[in-house]
């Protein structure tokens, strides 16, 4: 039965009611387009794409951008909107006063200028702290970019300074809490990924060059974003700093800052103690501590607990890196506990594996020679517990100089002059290129330094953000180097488990199908001399592999059988070969069946199916292309090598 | 009373005679000379011009008394005006006497006067020299100005206090004198003449002698007079000298005559006075016209910061000055109240605005924060994609692009690059250059964040890695065997003539095909041998159909507009042949049709005729009956029993669908009205229902009740073929728009399933009579075989499984497989195509 009385009118419900065009919104808010944009940016209001544009636009198909009506409705009560209106009136008054030459009035007006704050907006947009952490990527990237821009007429110097300070504060926090996880040197810049309170924060830092600023850039938009981000980061940092019991904002040592100390110019201060924590230990402090550590180690050795040495060392180094002088009395600690019931120790909540990886460099001393970009590497190394010294050219505040005997890694990024005598430095140190540091971090292990020596052709630098397992699952291309890493990891796991060997071997065989045997061996040697060759499966059954590849080749099959017999694996080999046989025709038939069955799809499903098959085909194509290219390159290299030898 | 005159001419001559002198001296001297003249009464008529004392002096030729009075005044003036040395414009109150003596117009006297003047002048000069330095030449002029600028009454009072010179008599400024009355003996004020005269101060009251007004002077050119005076007397034209006079005048005049001006009204020359000349000089030089004006006099500050010992104004201070303002009080109180109630927060001087007093950053979040509930309209911005290996500064070599790829990428539009970058391999970190698009990319991200529309995804994104997961789970074709898979027997037609139709006899032994050359060929099904052939006209044969009755081996052929009933009699056994021919020919005897084929029954449509073939040879060949029908035949379909058959012919109006009865040789036209062009018809396999497919619709009629049962809307644009499931509850429809539609007759009038898998038009659809299979043929040259299980259970939907695509027919002239039929017993298919080939498809 039809409802009587309530006739449904057009344009009074649904999309027509839910959406409002931009012009309507501006009219409703009675503000200018510029103010509306500013509000949208600050409040995080964005246009929507209605499912039916025509319905949303009350039958008109004219191009329009739609906003959610309630967003605009809420904007009506926004205090910032009121302030913007006040500011408009103020600007009028001021210009009038100036035009009349009433300087006193103008001064008074200027003093009572309406200023808006956006803290309530921050709280509204990010009701919980975690929400704000989730949205930190863009904020950090933009702040870091502006920190590296020159001040112009459109960008005031004060903003640049503030951005630089915020960037430094963030780095300081990440270093202190050791929350940096991944670093990627891309051609766009350097990607960093940190894990803060369970949220991953990724930001991009440009290389230290003058930025190319396009002429058609609307800086008003960028500056509005910047305004929001500066406030957001201020509040977030306040929370982060106070959570680890530090005073925010950290004080700035002007002299050091002027001398280009970078992050070192910020002075951390623990709250409640009034104690200025040393930004980096002074030389004497360190000496004392080192002596202390050495003594401890000596004692331990004397006692005969050499096994614990490394752990102890790491712990000590960690202490040092934390930079907190252990001077707090018991009372203070109690007070602290009262104030902060949560344990503020950085790594307290982190699992052991993470802890071990974050203190990767804790026992090492790095020296940056003058051609190396200091800010990046200093940040990275210190985030992983290393001690960094640098050339005086790179700024003031280096804790040790080039000839310090403690230096374990000397980071060099200059070409090797053939015939030139190597520079003599006291002590034993490894000379590495900067990529070594980053690769070590991404792999969470210390890699052999030989491949990264100055003048050597570096191994490819892979993105740590790619999940190779998933890529492989989806049929994407996994570069050889990544495969090696994966295999090494897997082998490690197996070593740990030492069980279900047979099943694992099966998997491995599948994985290694495409790999050439010699490569396999080389890899095992190169990457992890301690691990690779531990397994007999790894030692490879070339004939078996070949047979799996080419199941119709009788001789290969035979050879594989022999091989397998030797290992008591006959059954398995046969199975593998049989599977290989089955696979070929089966695949084809399945595809035909699929094609036939696809007749029964509805139009919508068919579209989706076609789209998916298209994209998967493209992916396969891409994978095949890369695969082929890799083989070609390998072939070329193989050709050129003997030539070079001759 | 003051006699008034406006005699400029006489004065002019005098002034001419005057030698130029310092202006300061001149008035004085003139006055003196005037005095003398007065004394002498030398001149009868003198025009006082009101311009200068000389007018009085020399030009006043009024009556004696007047002159005397004037003289008196002048004396006084001299005395009075000495203390105003700064004003030296040589005029005085004498203006008031101007123009008094209007009646004097003696030109001759003027002339003489002019001549006399110089002498007198010289005499006077001496006198003046003798007289002293009390040179207040401008004094009378001052007086004049003052008189003109102030009211006569006020003139005396103001400013006297501060400029009074004690040396002067009290009344030196006064126009009045205090005299002792001769009559009363008391003092009385006696006013100056010119004041009480009434006219004196106003030059507008000056009267000229000539009263003609503003009329052109040439009106009087021929007359002896030049106008009339106030009394109406003629003013006679002054004597003008002849040329000699003029010449003499020019000689006599020291200035060469340029100081004279012509007075048109009086037709006289007026000489400019010394002062007038001086004035003109000053104006020409741009100086102040007043020679005595001193621009550098010290200013007198009446109102200054210096407090005067006595008030400037004698008024007492008003009371309001001592009372507080009520309105100010109100305003102040308003602010005070606002401050008290807290509406206004007063700011300390020098402090910045109140809002900044809040600390810039503080603990915004706490433990008690509650996350906002998820809302469908909340769409957080997607994060930027993380970089892959190809963005590395040192990627694996296989990621590097070839030159072609780079060129292709560079040629792309900016939008198509999608943030991709060309991979570059650097051998060391120091070689990495700045990324030029860095700022731009950040900016675009900002734009995206607030400008890019975000869309709601209703369903979560399907987490399907393999597209095959989308495919419905159907039973494998292997499990649904048997179905035709391979082509076995071929029925090749000569010359590859396009074959339109095919049919298999109910025993499954014979296949009959109809080709476009008008030949019907009979093939042995299992062998492929062409056993017989019949020529049925020249047009293409669109339909061949075996009679479904196994007892009678005959088939109907639709050739252009004739239906042939043919039986392969030579191939049949004698019993069969006899039975068949008897069956077919029984109608001729039972029905009262003659050999000519004229139908007797009135029910039969007029255009339809049943007749026997003429020749015996034809009969022996097996042709049994011929039926003429209107239009061109398109289809023949038999009823299951094998007695009735229906034909469809194209342009035949309501006769396009006919139902023929073979036993009785009767034809009916079931529809009196044609609704759309009929494409196909079909009998229901079990019920007395009849399906008629027009271009877009399918109608189901009940033949017994003669009514429309149902109309189906398959949603097709042009139906090409139709078949009913052997159980009778389902229907498949093929269309030229590449779709196959399955209708469940128990359900709605809309299709149960619409499938689109052929790439070209469908030509034929058919259900297998014994197996759960159906086929569709198409112009794309393929035959699709489907499995179709129809369940007796009403709740279960029919199961349709695609089984096989049979390909083998060639496409010719964009026509593919034109017809296909199922074998009556086996899961076999016989198909014919445009390539002139018939094929048997077996399992």
Give a short overview:
The complex is a heterodimer of chains A (646) and B (843). Chain A is an alpha/beta fold.
Break the fold down into its secondary structure elements and pairings:
The complex is a heterodimer of chains A (646) and B (843).
Chain A: H1 15-18, E1 19-21, H2 22-29, H3 33-43, E2 48-49, H4 53-56, E3 66-68, H5 69-75, H6 79-100, H7 103-111, H8 119-125, H9 129-134, H10 136-147, H11 157-177, E4 180-185, E5 190-196, E6 199-205, H12 219-243, E7 251-252, H13 254-258, E8 266-270, E9 275-277, H14 283-303, H15 309-322, H16 330-339, H17 352-358, E10 365-368, H18 374-383, E11 387-390, E12 409-411, E13 430-432, H19 434-443, H20 468-473, H21 480-497, H22 501-511, H23 517-527, H24 542-549, H25 554-567, H26 570-597, H27 603-645
Parallel strand pairs in A: 10-11, 10-12, 12-13
Antiparallel strand pairs in A: 1-3, 4-5, 5-6, 7-8, 8-9
Helix pairs in contact in A: 3-12, 6-7, 10-11, 10-12, 11-12, 11-18, 14-15, 24-25, 24-26, 25-26
Chain B: H1 9-17, H2 26-40, H3 53-57, H4 64-80, H5 107-130, H6 139-149, H7 160-163, E1 176-180, E2 187-191, H8 193-196, E3 225-228, E4 234-236, H9 243-252, E5 260-263, E6 268-271, H10 274-285, H11 326-341, H12 403-411, H13 414-417, H14 438-451, E7 454-455, E8 486-492, E9 499-504, E10 510-515, E11 519-524, E12 530-535, E13 541-546, E14 555-559, E15 562-566, H15 574-590, E16 609-611, H16 616-621, E17 623-628, E18 633-638, E19 644-649, E20 657-661, E21 666-668, E22 678-683, E23 689-694, E24 698-702, E25 707-712, E26 719-724, E27 730-735, E28 740-744, E29 753-755, E30 762-767, E31 773-778, E32 782-789, E33 799-807, E34 817-822, E35 829-833, E36 837-842
Antiparallel strand pairs in B: 1-2, 3-4, 5-6, 8-36, 9-10, 10-11, 11-12, 13-14, 14-15, 15-17, 16-17, 18-19, 19-20, 20-21, 22-23, 23-24, 24-25, 26-27, 27-28, 28-29, 30-31, 31-32, 32-33, 34-35, 35-36
Helix pairs in contact in B: 1-5, 2-4, 2-5
């Amino acid at each position: 039965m039809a409802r009587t009385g309530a006739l449904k009118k057009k344009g009074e419900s649904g999309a027509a009611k839910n959406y409002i065009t931009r012009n309507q919104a501006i009219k409703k808010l009675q503000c200018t387009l510029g103010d509306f944009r500013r509000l949208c940016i600050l409040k995080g209001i964005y246009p929507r794409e209605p499912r039916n544009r025509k319905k949303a636009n009350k039958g008109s198909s004219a191009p329009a951008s739609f906003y959610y009506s309630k967003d605009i409705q809420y904007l009506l009560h926004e205090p910032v909107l009121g302030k913007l209106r006040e500011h408009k009136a103020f600007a009028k008054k001021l210009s009038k006063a100036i035009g009349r030459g009433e300087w006193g009035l103008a001064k008074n007006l200027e003093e009572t200028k309406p200023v808006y704050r956006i803290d309530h907006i921050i709280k509204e947009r990010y009701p919980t702290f975690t929400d704000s952490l989730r949205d930190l990527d863009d904020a950090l990237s933009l702040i870091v970019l502006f920190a590296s821009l020159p001040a112009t007429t459109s960008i005031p110097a004060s903003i640049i300074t503030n951005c630089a300070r915020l960037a430094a504060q963030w780095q300081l926090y990440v270093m202190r809490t050791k929350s940096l996880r991944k670093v990627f040197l891309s051609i766009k810049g350097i990607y960093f990924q940190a894990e803060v309170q369970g949220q991953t924060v990724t930001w991009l830092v440009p290389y230290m060059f003058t930025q190319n600023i396009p002429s058609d850039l609307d800086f008003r938009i960028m500056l509005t974003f910047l305004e929001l981000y500066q406030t957001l980061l201020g509040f977030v940092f306040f929370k982060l700093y106070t959570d680890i019991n530090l005073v925010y904002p950290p004080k700035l040592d002007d002299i050091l800052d002027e001398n280009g100390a970078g992050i070192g110019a910020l002075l951390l201060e623990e709250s409640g103690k009034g104690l200025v924590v040393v930004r980096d230990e002074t030389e004497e402090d360190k000496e004392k501590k080192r002596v202390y550590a050495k003594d401890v180690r000596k004692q331990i050795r004397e006692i005969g607990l050499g096994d614990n040495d490394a752990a102890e060392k790491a712990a000590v180094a960690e202490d040092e890196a934390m930079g907190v002088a252990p001077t707090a009395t018991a009372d203070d600690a109690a007070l602290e506990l009262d104030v902060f019931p949560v344990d503020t120790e950085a790594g307290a909540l982190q699992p052991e594996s993470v802890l071990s990886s974050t203190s990767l460099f804790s026992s090492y001393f790095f020296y940056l020679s003058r051609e190396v970009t200091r800010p990046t590497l200093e940040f990275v190394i210190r985030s992983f517990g290393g001690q960094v010294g640098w050339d005086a050219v790179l700024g003031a505040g280096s804790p040790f100089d080039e000839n310090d005997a403690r230096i374990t890694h000397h980071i060099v990024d200059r070409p090797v002059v053939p015939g030139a005598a190597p520079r003599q430095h006291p002590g034993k140190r490894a000379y590495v290129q900067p990529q070594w540091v980053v690769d070590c971090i991404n792999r969470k292990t210390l890699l052999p330094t030989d491949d990264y020596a100055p003048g050597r052709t570096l191994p490819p630098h892979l993105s740590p953000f790619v999940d190779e397992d998933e890529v492989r699952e989806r049929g994407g291309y996994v570069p050889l180097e990544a495969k090696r890493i994966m295999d090494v990891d897997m082998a490690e796991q197996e070593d740990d488990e030492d069980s279900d060997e047979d099943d694992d071997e099966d998997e491995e065989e599948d994985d290694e199908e495409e790999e050439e045997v010699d490569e396999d061996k080389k890899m095992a040697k190169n990457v992890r001399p301690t691990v690779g060759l531990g397994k007999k499966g790894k030692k490879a059954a070339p004939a078996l592999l070949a047979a799996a590849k080419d199941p119709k080749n009788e001789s290969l099959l035979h050879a594989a059988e022999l091989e397998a017999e030797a290992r008591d694996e006959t059954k398995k080999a046969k199975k593998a070969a049989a599977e290989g046989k089955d696979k070929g025709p089966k695949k084809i038939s399945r595809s035909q069946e699929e094609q036939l069955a696809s007749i029964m799809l509805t139009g919508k499903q068919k579209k989706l199916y076609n789209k998916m098959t298209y994209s998967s085909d493209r992916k396969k194509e891409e994978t095949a292309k890369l695969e082929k290219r890799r083989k070609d390159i390998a072939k070329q290299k193989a050709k050129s090598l003997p030539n070079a030898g001759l | 009373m003051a006699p008034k005159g406006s005699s400029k001419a006489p004065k002019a001559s005098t002034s001419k005679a005057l030698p130029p002198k310092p202006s300061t001296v001149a008035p004085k001297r003139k006055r003196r000379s005037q005095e003398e003249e007065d004394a002498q009464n030398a001149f009868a008529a003198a025009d006082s011009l009101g311009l200068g004392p000389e007018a009085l002096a020399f030009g006043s030729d009024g009556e004696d008394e007047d002159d005397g009075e004037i003289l008196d005044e002048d004396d006084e003036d001299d005395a009075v005006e000495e203390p105003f040395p700064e004003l030296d414009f040589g005029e005085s109150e004498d203006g008031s006497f101007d123009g008094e003596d209007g009646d004097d117009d003696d030109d001759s006297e003027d002339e003489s006067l002019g001549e006399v003047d110089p002498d007198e002048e010289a005499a006077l000069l001496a006198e003046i020299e003798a007289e002293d330095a009390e040179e207040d030449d401008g004094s009378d002029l001052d007086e004049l100005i003052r008189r003109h600028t102030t009211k006569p009454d006020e003139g005396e009072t103001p400013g006297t206090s501060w400029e009074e010179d004690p040396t002067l008599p009290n009344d030196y400024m006064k126009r009045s004198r205090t005299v002792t009355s001769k009559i009363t003996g008391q003092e009385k004020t006696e006013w100056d003449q010119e004041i009480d005269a009434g006219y004196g101060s106003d030059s507008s009251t000056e009267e000229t002698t000539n009263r003609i007004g503003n009329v052109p002077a040439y009106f009087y050119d021929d007359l002896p007079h030049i106008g009339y005076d106030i009394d109406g007397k003629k003013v006679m034209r002054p004597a003008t000298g002849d040329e000699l006079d003029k010449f003499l005048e020019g000689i006599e005049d020291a200035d060469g005559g340029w100081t004279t001006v012509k007075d048109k009204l009086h037709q006289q020359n007026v000489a400019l006075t010394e002062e007038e000349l001086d004035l003109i000089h000053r104006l020409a030089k741009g100086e102040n016209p007043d020679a005595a004006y001193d621009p550098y006099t010290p200013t007198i500050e009446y109102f200054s910061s210096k407090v005067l010992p006595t008030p400037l104004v004698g008024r007492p201070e008003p009371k309001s000055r001592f009372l507080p303002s009520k309105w100010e009080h109100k305003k102040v109180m308003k602010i005070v109240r606002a401050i008290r109630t807290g509406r206004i927060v007063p700011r300390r001087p020098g402090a910045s605005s109140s809002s900044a007093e809040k600390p810039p950053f503080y603990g915004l979040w706490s433990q008690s924060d509650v996350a906002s509930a998820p809302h469908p309209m909340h769409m957080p911005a997607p994060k930027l994609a993380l970089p892959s290996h190809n963005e590395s500064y040192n990627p694996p070599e296989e990621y590097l692009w070839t030159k072609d790829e780079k060129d292709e990428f560079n040629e792309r539009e900016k939008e198509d690059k999608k943030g991709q970058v060309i991979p570059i391999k650097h051998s060391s970190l120091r070689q990495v250059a700045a990324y030029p698009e860095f700022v731009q990319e950040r900016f675009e991200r900002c734009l995206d964040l607030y400008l890019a529309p975000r869309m709601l995804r209703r369903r979560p994104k399907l987490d399907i890695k393999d597209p095959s997961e989308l495919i419905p789970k159907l039973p494998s074709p292997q499990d649904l065997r048997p179905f035709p898979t391979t082509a076995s027997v071929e029925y090749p037609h000569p010359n590859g003539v396009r074959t339109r139709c095919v049919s298999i006899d109910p025993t499954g032994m014979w296949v009959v095909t109809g080709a476009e050359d008008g030949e019907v060929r009979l093939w042995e099904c299992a062998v492929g041998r062409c056993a017989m052939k019949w020529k049925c006209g020249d047009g293409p044969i669109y339909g061949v159909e075996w009679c479904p009755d196994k007892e009678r081996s005959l088939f109907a052929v639709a050739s252009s507009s004739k239906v042939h009933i043919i039986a392969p009699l030579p191939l049949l056994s004698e019993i069969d042949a006899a039975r068949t021919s008897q069956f077919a020919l029984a109608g001729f005897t039972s029905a009262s049709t003659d050999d000519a084929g004229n139908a007797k029954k009135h029910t039969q449509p007029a255009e339809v005729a049943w007749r026997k073939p003429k020749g015996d040879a034809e009969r022996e060949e097996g042709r049994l009956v011929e039926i003429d029908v209107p239009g061109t035949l398109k289809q023949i379909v038999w009823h299951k029993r094998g007695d009735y058959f229906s034909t469809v012919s194209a342009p035949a109006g309501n006769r396009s669908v006919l139902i023929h009865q073979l036993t009785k040789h009767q034809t009916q036209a079931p529809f009196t009205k044609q609704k759309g062009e009929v494409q196909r018809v079909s009998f229901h396999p079990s019920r007395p229902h009849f399906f008629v497919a027009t271009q877009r619709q399918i109608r189901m009629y009940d033949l017994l009740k003669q009514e429309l049962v149902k109309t189906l809307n398959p949603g097709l644009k042009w139906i090409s073929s139709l078949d009913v499931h052997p159980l009778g509850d389902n229907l498949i429809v093929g269309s030229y728009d590449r779709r196959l539609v399955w209708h469940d007759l128990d359900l709605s009038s809309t299709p149960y399933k619409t499938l689109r898998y052929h790439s070209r038009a469908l030509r034929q659809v058919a259900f297998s009579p014994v197996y759960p299979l159906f086929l569709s043929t198409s112009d794309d040259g393929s035959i699709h075989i489907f499995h179709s299980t129809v369940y007796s259970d009403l709740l279960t939907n029919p199961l349709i499984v695609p089984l096989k695509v049979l390909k083998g027919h060639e496409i010719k002239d964009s026509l593919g497989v034109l017809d296909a039929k199922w074998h009556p017993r086996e899961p076999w298919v016989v198909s014919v195509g445009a390539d002139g080939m018939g094929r048997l498809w077996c399992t």
